[in-house]
Amino acid sequence: MRFGLLLAFLYSGFFSFGQNYDILLKGGHLIDPKNGIDEIMDLAISGDSIAAVAKDIPESQSKKVIDVKGLYVTPGLIDMHVHVFNGHTPGSYIADGPTSVPPDGFTFRSGVTTVVDAGSSGWKNFRQFKTQTIDQSKTRVLALLNIVGVGMLGRFEEQNVADMNPIMTAHMITKMFPDLLVGIKSAHYWGDFTQVDKAVEAGKLANVPVMVDFGEHEPPNSIESLFMEHLRPGDMFTHTYSNGPRVRETVVDANGQVKPFVFKAQERGIVFDVGHGGGAFSWVQAVPAIKQGFLPNVISTDLHIQSMNAGMKDLCNVMSKFMALGLSIQDVVLRTTWNPARVISRPELGNLDIGAEADVAVLNVREGNFGFTDVRRLTVDGTKKLEAELTIRAGKIVWDLNGISTEKFK
Questions:
Q1: Between β-strands 360-373 and 21-32, what pairing exists: parallel, antiparallel or unpaired?
Q2: What torsion do the CA atoms of 353, 334, 315, 146 make, to the nearest 10 degrees?
């Protein structure tokens, strides 16, 4: 009887003669907003999953030990607004076009393990996007489906109301790819609220949120009407700090004051997404907004070739901009992990739960004198800049900036 109890004890996992873990991140400052962790702890990985989060996990229990003292360990970052339907369709803009980028080349180096493509494809070409990009990528690629059937083929195609089919859009989400499609996108429409309303109709049918890029109306349509009458709680307004007043009403007025209805909209549940992009983030909007307490719900890049070499560099750069405006690293990690995971209803992402897929970012906060540029080529100075030291996707090291996971050459 005693021998049987001893065997049960040995097999229970409380005692082991071997190494339980494949990777141990030792001594880092963990930030996990979902679980309320903000302190120095160790994190262990077995296979593709997080196996332990605790203080002082013995190094002898892991095959590989990585010293991350002085660094921040966070869930793998989620960039909720990118364009990665890269391709070669003649004349195309973003849908299977050269403006989109291949995800793996631009994600891991900034700590990003999950991206959400923001409407590059519609229901007519999503399957091509899946085969061509999603299935070929190590990055987890989710997507918002454009309400326009051909997606972002070009500005003229995006005006085609006849190609805005809520039923087919919803069917593609609910019947075909519910694991990949997390919402709907309305963008670049020159008319009234027709495209937004079609997108919301599809969102109701599929029970998913809508993201709206509401910036090409001259004169501009009312964003108060958009927030209070057309969108639902949980729907997303992107390019929050854009300053193109001729074609888009801004959240900060000409006197530098956040419009009162903007706070009310956020209280109502409208999600405000940064969506930096190549032309949609201006200090003249962001600085007064942050000073007055209007913070974005989600920080994202709007990654594509026309943004990544200009004011927007990568997600770490955009996070650093908000730190230059006074947000803490905890604030920006929340807005790039657990907040976007909740917005897209993927609670398995953006956290360091035991048993969760091991998507982890190890970030360094560099201190010095740095300049952060908006889309108008205006610069705000800052003293801290985030940099991705190590990125782990599904338990595999996919980015190591300074070789902290490797053996030293002798």
A1: unpaired
A2: 90
Sign of CA dihedral 8, 13, 14, 17: positive
CA distance 48 to 35: 20
How far is residue 192 CA from its own chain's centroid?
A: 29
Query: Which 3 state secondary structure label does DSSP give 167?
Result: helix
Quote the CA–CA distance of 105 and 344 in Å, as a whole number.
24
Residue 136: count other Cβ atoms within 10 Å of its Cβ: 12
For residues 380 and 359, give the distance between their C-alpha atoms in angstroms, rounded to a whole number.
Answer: 32
Tell me, what amino acid is at 381? D
- For the chain, domains (ranges, CATH) are 75-343 (3.20.20.140)
Q: Residue 122's Cα: distance from chain center in Å?
A: 20
One-letter identity of residue 35: N
> Considering only CA atoms, which of 84, 136, 62, 113 is closest in space to residue 396?
113
The token pair at 369 is 């004198």
- Check if the beta carbon of residue 72 is closer than 8 Å to that of residue 365: yes
Beta bridge partners of 116: 142
Amino acid in position 70: G
Q: Which residue has the tokens 């429409």?
A: 189
What residue type is assigned to position 185 of the chain? Answer: K
What stretches of 269-314 show up as alpha helix (H) in DSSP?
A: 283-291
* Sequence-distant (≥ 6) Cβ neighbours of residue 337 within 8 angstroms: 32, 33, 34, 74, 75, 76, 77, 78, 350, 351
Predicted confidence (pLDDT) per residue in 343-391, tens digit: 999 999 999 999 999 999 999 999 999 999 999 999 999 999 999 999 9
Distance CA 152, CA 188 (A): 9
Is residue 247 classed as helix, strand or coil in its secondary structure? coil
276-330: per-residue pLDDT in tens? 999 999 999 999 999 999 999 999 999 999 999 989 999 999 999 999 999 999 9
Q: Which helix (H) or strand (E) holds 61?
A: none
Cβ atoms of 69 and 27 within 8 Å: the answer is yes
Contact 192, 206 (CB under 8 A): no
The SS3 assignment for 378 reads coil
Pairing of strands 236-237, 181-187: unpaired
Which residue(s) pair with 32 in the sheet?
37
49-54 and 62-67 as β-strands: parallel, antiparallel, unpaired?
Answer: unpaired
Q: Identify residue 265 by its one-letter amino acid code.
A: A
The token pair at 37 is 């962790």
